[in-house]
Amino acid sequence: MKNNLRTLIIAAAAIISPALWANPFNKNLTDEERATLGSGKVLIKSISSVKKASVDRTPETEQVIDAMRKLGPTYIAEIIQVRPYEGNENLVENINSILSDVSQYVGIPYYSERTGEWYELYSSAETTGKKVSGNKTTLSTILEMSVFGKFRSQIDIEKRDTNYFYMMKNLDKLRYHDKFNAVGKEKMQSVITVFRDGDNWILYAIGGADVLKIPFMSGINERVEVSFMNRIKTFCNYIFEKI
Hints:
By secondary structure, this protein is an alpha+beta fold. The protein is built from five helices and eleven strands; from the N terminus they run H-H-E-H-E-H-E-E-E-E-E-E-E-E-E-H.
């Protein structure tokens, strides 16, 4: 009996990849989603609140979770990937080289579900200021997004050898087709963290927008909400794929 049990345990250990049971993930991640991560694919999911996040608040994720809790967005998206450390030793350097250079944001392909056409996620991007203090960098930028036009944003980056944190937030109100305010100041945020977990890298992004509701215009509200969430998903997924 003991031998049979031992055989079953060994067999299970051979099948289950360590990536499936990476420490940061909690019960909000389904078995199917764990399998997706175990295969190395990018997982993209929408969640209803920060309580539904797939990671618990740990020293590695606390900045990300705290940022979303403070924002209190009406809509949230998670983008997650697990990669082996071996062969990806320079992952932090690679992601920082893209995210700290906003000129590389221009031309990211974005698909509009409403029109069925492709657009540029950002049609222009400019860095207007930069402050560096130790391993922390703050960038002042002006980004231009179709439908919402140009807006000032702030990017905060913390970079260490095995830990990386990035947060972008809007500093201006975002207006939909210049007709009405869709999102208030600092109410759209994209947060990305990369950290070491045993033999793996965990790439975790969460983005949210506290979208302003227009009375008696449910169709417009839904369109704006979908637009923001798809943009956040597109940006983070593109970054993960590029590195």
